[in-house]
Amino acid sequence: MSALITLLSDFGSSGPYPAAMKAVIASYCDPLFIDISHEVPRHNIRAGAYLLFTVAPFTPAGTIHLAVVDPGVGTPRSALVLTSGGQFFVGPDNGLLVPAARRVGTPRAYAIDDEQLLRGIRSATFHGRDLFAPVAGLLAKGMLPSALGSPASEFADLEFGTGQLERGTLTGEIIYADAFGNLITNIPASLLPAEGKRVMVRAGGRTTSAIVARTYGDGAPNRLLVVPGSDGFAEIAIREASAAKALGAGPGSVVHVRPRS
C-alpha cells in the first residue's frame, strides 16, 4: 500500500524544489503525494500553519505531513517529527506544525538527531530535500519517530488565538486571506449573530455594513458578508469579489464585528 504524504512549502510551483523533495522520498517508498500548497507567502510561517491546519483533519491515520516554511534553515533551530492522532508531521521547529497537530490530537515531539541523517545534509540551505524528505521516507517505510530523534519536551509554539465577544462586539484578528479575497478570522463562527442579522465590520481602518449569511451566494453582489467558514471561523467575504481588497485588510489586521444600531 502506498504511503500518503502531503507536502506544503513556500518554494513556489515553478521551481525544482518540490520535485527534488518528492524524488528523495520516492527513493525510500512508493508514495502517494498530495500537494497542499507550494504557494505559501514567502517565509510566512503562520499562513503555512493555517493551510496545514485546514487539511490534517481530513487525512487518514498514517499520513505523513512534510511542511517546509523555514526562514531559519541552516541555523541552530531544531528539526522535528510530531506525532498526533495517528499522523506524522515533519518540519522545522518554528511552530509551523503545531496547530495542525493539535487539531487532530495531542502532539508528541521528537527532535531529529540521528547522526547518519545529519551527516547526509549536503546543503545548509535545503533541509527540505536533505533532511525532512529522508525522514518522511523512513517514516513511510515504518521506522518509528523514536529511532530518528529524541523526545522533545519543549518546542516552538504557534497559536491563532481566539476572538472574543466583548461588550456586544466580536473582536479578533484576520489569520488568512484566501485566493478569493475572503478574510478568515480567529473569531469562532459559533459566536456570530443569527443569519440575516445586520452588523458593522471594522477592519483595515474601514468600517462597513454587512449581513450575517449562511454562505457566499446568499449575499447580494458587492455587499459585505460575514459567514461561518468551513473550518469553524467567521469569514468576511463579498460575493464574487474580494473583501481583502474592499477593506484594505489582511493577515494580522484586527477585526471588529458589532450589531448595526
Descriptors:
261 residues, 15 strands, seven-stranded mixed β-sheet, Elongation Factor Tu (Ef-tu), domain 3, Rossmann fold, alpha+beta, seven-stranded mixed beta barrel, 20% helix, 33% strand
Relevant CATH superfamily of the largest domain: S-adenosyl-l-methionine hydroxide adenosyltransferase, N-terminal
Q: Number of helical runs?
A: 6
Q: Strand order, main sheet: write it out.
A: 2-1-3-5-4-6-7
Class from secondary-structure proportions:
alpha+beta
- Biggest sheet: strands, sense, closure? 7 strands, mixed
What level of helicity do the residues show? 10-25%
What percent strand? 25-35%
Characterization of the model:
With about 260 residues, this protein is an alpha+beta fold. The chain folds into 2 domains: about 5-150, S-adenosyl-l-methionine hydroxide adenosyltransferase, N-terminal (Rossmann fold), CATH 3.40.50; about 165-260, Beta Barrel (Elongation Factor Tu (Ef-tu), domain 3). Helices cover about 20% and strands about 35% of the residues. It has 6 helices and 15 strands. The chain has helices at about 15-25, 45-55, 100-105, 115-120, 125-140, 245; strands spanning about 5-10, 30-35, 65-70, 80-85, 85-90, 110, 150, 165, 170-175, 185-190, 200-205, 205-210, 225-230, 235-240, 255-260. Strands 2-1-3-5-4-6-7 form a 7-stranded mixed β-sheet, with helices on both faces. The longest helix has 14 residues, at about 125-140. The protein is elongated and about 65 Å long. The N and C termini lie far apart (about 60 Å). About 40% of the residues are buried. The model has no long low-confidence stretch (mean pLDDT about 95).
